Amino acid sequence: MRIRRQRAAAALLALVFFFGRIVLAQEAVQKLGEIDTSYYTPPESTEPYSNSNTAGPIRNVILLIGDGMGLSETTLAHLIAGGAVGKLHLERLPVTGIVWTNASDTLVTDSAAASTALAGGVRTKKGVIGLSPEGGRVLTLSEAAKQKGMATGLVVTSSITDATPAGFVAHVPSRRDEIDIALDMRKSGTDILLGGGRSYWIPESVPGGKRKDGRDLIAELEALGYGIPRNAEELAVAKESKLLGLFENDALTTLPPEPSLASMTAKAIEILAKNKKGFFLMVEGSEIDFAGHKHDSGEVVRQTLLFDMAVKTAMEFAEKDGLTLVIVIADHETGGLVLIDGKLSGKDMEVTWTTKYHTPTPVMLYAFGPGSLAFTGVEHHVDVSRKIAQALGITDFPRVTSGAKTIEELATSTKR
To answer: Known catalytic residue: 111?
Structure first.
């Protein structure tokens, strides 16, 4: 009798646990209503972009990174914007691959380690910018391109000193060292810097400023000939060969009257393309990740579509130019987004989320232009970076200058 009661109790607990999980799962399901996409211009065709010049010479590289943009995120945006038969602009790039994202010390990466891998071809620890796990300085694609005489640019919707853009020009033990990252950027000679993060460039004596060293890095670059557009109107008419445009104290709102990611991308290409030796441009849709952390499905759609408009801008140039390699990729997926159901039209989509953080799920890569066929298959972020370097004729890459101190020693040493 006692055994029967124990079995019955165990069975009851199992039922409660099972059905309780079902109820919790149902409560976590979001049913999306109407989502405004009036700001988005979908492709006129769903056919792949014509990739006729896959073996020709490469003059320019445009690397577009959707922060936190997994396959579920692009699929959701695709369904909302065009239904099951539509496509995003990025989905029209004809060459595709699958990319692993793990850091050197953990399966689930962050934007710092992922950016260091994508920029320098080296796996490093989470939170680390431009340094190897042993503290060595990692040469980045942007730095190597600059050494070849190419023009370089970074365009983002986050702070320009945030982890992803930082990984292309900075070398610090922690992504939180945005004051030091701004100093590295000021020294880098990068031709175009557009995004947010004004606070990290100006002294505390100025409203919103966070620099304790009293330096005004914006004024310093202006003295070196940089144009300093302060709003969308000034950016639109800027003619200088170098630009520093920081349109918010921190991340952009991605709402008018700020310049859009697409318009910042267009201006960057307009200026960088004047360099006869070519250019390297990194563009980040930073806030797909922000929305994923918040489980804001509607905002995921908006940020993904805003990013896709920047892809459209890049592709309009690349198609005409014929010498530009375009790569679209993510640094990682954020939120564990799962699509459950919905109509073929994209209406009444049901979604749920599995985590508030990043996931180790591989991400998609999309490529177009000369050299693009090298990016098929399953690879890692570091392979992508190394192939870009090879395409540009950058030798001895990846390249790490041995550091005298480890990451831990650097993190506890006196600030610059």
So the answer is: yes
